[in-house]
Amino acid sequence: MKNPLPFLAVFLFAAALSAGAWAQQQQAWPSKPVRVIVPAPAGSSLDLIARTLADRLRVMWKQPVVIETKAGAGGLIGMDTVAKAPHDGYTLGIGFNGPIAFGPYMYARMPYAPARDLIPIVLTTSQPNVLAVQADNPANTLPEFVEWAKKRGNRFSYASVGAGSSSHLTMELFRSATHIEAVHVPYSGSPPAGLSLAAGDTQALFTVAPALLPLIQGQRVKLIAITSAKRSELMKDLPTVAESGYPGFESLAWNGLFTAAGTPPEVVQRINADVNAVLQEPAVRELLANQGLVAGGGSPEEFRAFIDAEGRKWGAIIAKVGIRLDQ
Q1: Which residue in 19, 30, 176, 245 has the most C-beta neighbors within 10 A?
Q2: Are residues 122 and 175 in the same domain?
Q3: Are residues 52 and 122 in the same domain?
Q4: In this entry, which stretches build a coiled coil (predicted)?
C-alpha cells in the first residue's frame, strides 16, 4: 500500500490555499461599487438617510456607494430588487415598516418573503408619529380630544398617509385603546393628508412631525401628543400618548439596511460595524435629529428581534381591523 502522507499533505495544502483565498476575499470586500436601493421617491426621508450614510461609507470603503430610488407598491418594488439581488452584499436596501413588518399580514401574496429572503443588517433610524388636529379644535390635551371624538361618533374621520401605513395603523391602535369610532380617509402621502386636516375635511392625523411643520407654523394645525415611549428632545412640551392615560402605547416609523439572504455573515458584520460607526458620529446624529429622526444602531440579531416583535404587534392590529391590500 502506498504511503498516504503525500496525498494528505497535498490535501491540507489545497485546503489552506482555499481558506486563505476565502479570507482574502472577505478582507477585500468591497472590491467594487455598492448600490443602495431606496424604495421611496427622491427627496424622501429614506433618500436623505441613504445619502447621509453613503457620503460616509464611500470614504470608509474606498468604493462608490450608488443610491438608486425604486419607489412604488408601498416599498415592495424596491425591496424585491434587494431580495432577488446576488447574495454578496453589493446590493443593500433601506427597508421600513410597510414592506418588512406589515406586508406579510396585509398582502395575500408578496413577491418576496421578508423573513426568508432578506437579512436585517442594522436599524438606521426611528421616528415617532404625532397626533395632529385642526388649530381651532377645542381639545388641547389627549383626554380632551378623546372626549371630543367620542361625542362626534361616526361624524369623526381621520386622515392617513396611505392605507396600511404607520400613520393608518397608529390611529387603529389608538382607536383600539380608546374605543372611539372613526372613518378612515387614506391619502397618497403626508402633504395631501395634512392639507385635508387643515381644511377640516378630516379631523385628526397621525404622521411624523416634520411633514406638518409648514401647517404648524401657519397655525392651521396643532399637535396633541407624540407616540414615542418618552418625550422627544425636539418637542419636550409635547406629552406622550403613554403618559396621557394609555401606558405602554408606542408607535414608531422605522427603517434599516437589508441585503439578500445568503450573503456571507462576515460581509453582514462588516456593513453593520461600519454603519454603526457612522451613526455614532455627532454630525450625523445632529443632521438626522434636525429631521426629527433618532439615530439607530445595534447588531443584526437585535434588529431581527425588533422586526419580529413589530410584526406580532402590528399583525394583530391588521387582523383586527381586517386590512387587506391586493398585490
Answers
A1: 30
A2: no
A3: yes
A4: none
pLDDT averaged over consecutive 10-residue blocks of the chain (327 residues)?
51 48 61 96 90 97 97 93 98 96 94 98 97 97 96 90 92 95 92 95 95 95 97 93 97 97 98 98 95 95 97 94 80
Q: Are 131 and 188 in contact (CB under 8 A)?
A: no
CATH number at residue 202: 3.40.190.10
Q: Per residue in 269-291, pLDDT tens?
A: 999 999 999 999 999 999 999 88
Asked if residue 5 belongs to a domain, the reply is no
User: Does any domain span residue 20?
Assistant: no
Cα within 13 Å of Cα(23), Cβ side? 6
Amino acid 6: pLDDT:
52
- Domain encompassing residue 110: 33-126+252-321
Residue 205's alpha-carbon distances to 112, 168, 298, 304, in angstroms, are 31, 9, 31, 29
Q: Find out whether 117 and 260 touch, Cβ atoms under 8 Å.
A: yes
User: Which of 188, 216, 244 is the C-terminal boundary of a domain?
Assistant: 244
Here the cell at position 133 is 388636529
Quote the pTM value: 0.85
Strand partners, 205: 132, 159
Is the same domain home to 81 and 143?
A: no
pLDDT at position 231: 94
Query: What is residue 27's predicted lDDT score, i.e. its pLDDT?
Result: 56
